[in-house]
Write a structure and sequence with these properties.
Layout: E1 3-4, H1 6-15, H2 25-35, E2 40-41, H3 58-66, E3 71-73, H4 77-80, E4 89-91, H5 93-103
Parallel strand pairs: 1-2, 3-4
């Protein structure tokens, strides 16, 4: 089950506003409204070591650490650079899909 926190939802909302996504404010709200019911809301109680170079990405690491996640799926280069340095996997969406498809 996906995990979210206040900080990660705030960052997702900000990122969905990037011009490359071409999403209106209503579309951003709708996207989150459809996604959030499938998520567990986690309070960020632990700081992940290592610390991410991009401070805006740190909440995703802290979320994975606090929520005892098995994997953090991301296309973000700063997060992917930390793969192998955390207690959880960090992998691209493509790598995640390949890995879970092999299990089924």
């Amino acid at each position: 089950m996906p995990l979210v926190s206040r900080a990660t939802v705030s960052e997702l909302t900000r990122v969905f506003g990037y011009p490359k996504f071409q999403l209106s404010m209503n579309e951003r709200r709708e996207l989150l409204a459809e996604y959030l019911p499938y998520c567990d809301v986690i309070e960020l109680t632990e700081k992940c070591i290592p610390v991410c170079r991009d401070a805006n990405d740190q909440p995703f690491l802290d979320l994975a650490q606090s929520g005892r996640a098995d994997v953090l799926v991301s296309g973000d280069r700063d997060l992917l650079a930390l793969a192998g340095q955390t207690t959880f996997l960090i992998e691209t969406p493509e790598a995640y899909l390949r890995r879970v498809s092999e299990v089924v």
